[in-house]
Design a protein that fits this description.
Keywords: Membrane, Signal, Transmembrane, Transmembrane helix. With about 400 residues, the chain is α+β, with helices and mostly antiparallel strands. The protein has nine helices and 15 strands. Helix 1 packs antiparallel against helix 7, helix 1 runs antiparallel to helix 9 and helix 7 runs antiparallel to helix 8. The chain is globular and about 65 Å long. The termini are close together.
Length: about 400
């Protein structure tokens, strides 16, 4: 009798040790070491190693544009052409045991934008530090909205990107940009998805007109910040002849959302296109298997995209196009009231589903069953564990330890 009790105690202890390992696996740990960060940083079109004291004081790459003049030239007019410099630094480093990434950009692209001569186009001082790819959990969403009203309040708000979450440890060293959501790999700002009217700039609900952009899908706001609201292939590939007005290109003006996705035709795998202000990576429209992301994103347009719990934002055809809030968010069956091109509902990716609390609950139930009694119960639990995690070595390890426990009993 005593040896049986000891056996149950041993098995129970071992199961709960393994349960801790299994729950940790279900929660996921992101790829956020220094090498991971440096790999992402290498995707940026940098002009100087950093960090630097002031990105605007560095020497960048000259861009010569015959199409820009007056206030639309952010540099100097030389022999009838506008000459400005693209300047960008992306640095990764350790702060204690945490990997930080610092983004420093003057906001100017390495191509010649298309814009009216009356527009102001100016150099910026974007400079911030943030934890790189911080750990997050599908079981603990940072944003949750379950009604049309709540979702619209969250996403249809031009100031919705003003405060990165505390877990990102965001520090600003440059000018203040309350509507900045992230920075593209070409140094161009990625702004909050909304127009000044707090509606989708391209497919606005109500009587608002769509905003004008060039064929790189960017434009300037009043302060002269050239920026994206949706993913653009121009960030990856320099348009050889320079962009023109979207309105003058039928494929762009007729369906700008489809046009944006088509601009990634040479990048149909997992492709870094920027960093969000919360430290998460922004990818183009495709997964590592070459599948376009049309579902699996949460309300923030973020997605758990692998089995270890990495979370990132993806360029999509639907509002909010790049990022609408700092996630992870939830998956309601409602839509926003500020766009005619928004999802009607949200569903988890297969990876998010596997990482969700339902799996943790099932494992906990099985562990309780194991600890309660006899060999028959253990065998029953073993069958369920196989079905739950065929890909995991936890089951095999568990059985090995049970055999050891039987040895202890003897």
């Amino acid at each position: 009798m005593k040896s049986t009790i000891n056996f149950n105690i041993h098995v129970s202890s071992l199961v709960f040790i393994l349960l801790g390992l299994t729950v940790n696996q279900a929660q996921g740990t992101a790829s956020n070491n220094l090498t991971n960060c440096q790999s992402v940083a290498s995707s940026f079109r940098t002009t100087v190693s950093g960090p630097v004291a002031n990105i605007t004081s560095t020497t960048g790459t000259n861009v010569t544009c015959t199409s820009l003049s007056g206030s639309s030239c952010p540099g100097s007019n030389i022999s009838g052409s506008c000459v400005f410099q693209h300047k960008l630094s992306v640095s990764c480093y350790l702060s204690g045991s945490t990997v930080k990434i610092r983004i420093q950009s003057n906001g100017l692209p390495y191509y010649c934008p298309s814009m009216p001569s009356s527009d102001t186009f100016a150099e910026q001082n974007i400079d911030f530090e943030v934890n790189f790819n911080p750990d997050v959990s599908v079981n603990s969403p940072l944003q949750s909205a379950t009604t049309v009203s709540a979702l619209s309040t969250l996403l249809c708000n031009i100031q919705g990107s003003s405060n990165p979450p505390s877990g990102s440890a965001y520090v600003n060293y440059g000018s203040s940009y309350s509507t900045l959501a992230g920075v593209s790999v070409d140094g161009v700002s990625i702004m909050n998805v909304n127009s000044l009217n707090n509606v989708d700039p391209f497919y606005p609900a109500g009587s608002f007109a769509a905003e004008s952009v060039d064929t790189c899908l960017a434009h300037c706001q009043a302060a002269g910040i050239y920026h994206y609201h949706m993913g653009s292939g121009c960030a990856k590939a320099n348009p050889s002849s320079g962009p023109s007005a979207c309105a003058s290109v039928p494929t762009c003006s007729s369906n700008i959302s489809n046009y944006g996705i088509s601009s990634f035709s040479s990048y149909t795998t997992l492709t870094v296109i920027g960093i969000s202000r919360d430290g998460h990576v922004i990818y183009g429209p495709y997964t590592s298997s070459g599948v376009e992301v049309t579902s699996g994103t949460d309300i923030c347009n973020g997605m758990f995209y692998d089995s270890i719990g990495n979370y990132a934002y993806f360029a999509t055809r639907k509002f909010p196009y790049i990022t609408g809030c700092y996630g992870p968010g939830n998956y309601p069956s409602v839509s926003v009231n500020c766009s005619t091109n928004a999802p009607s509902s949200y569903t988890m990716s297969s990876y998010a589903s596997a990482l969700s609390s339902s799996n943790v609950t099932t494992v906990s139930t099985n562990a309780t069953t194991v600890s309660s009694n006899t060999t028959t119960t253990i065998a029953s639990n073993t069958t369920r564990s196989k079905a739950l995690r065929r890909e995991s070595s936890v089951f095999l390890l568990l059985m090995t330890l049970i055999v050891i426990g039987i040895g202890w009993m003897d």
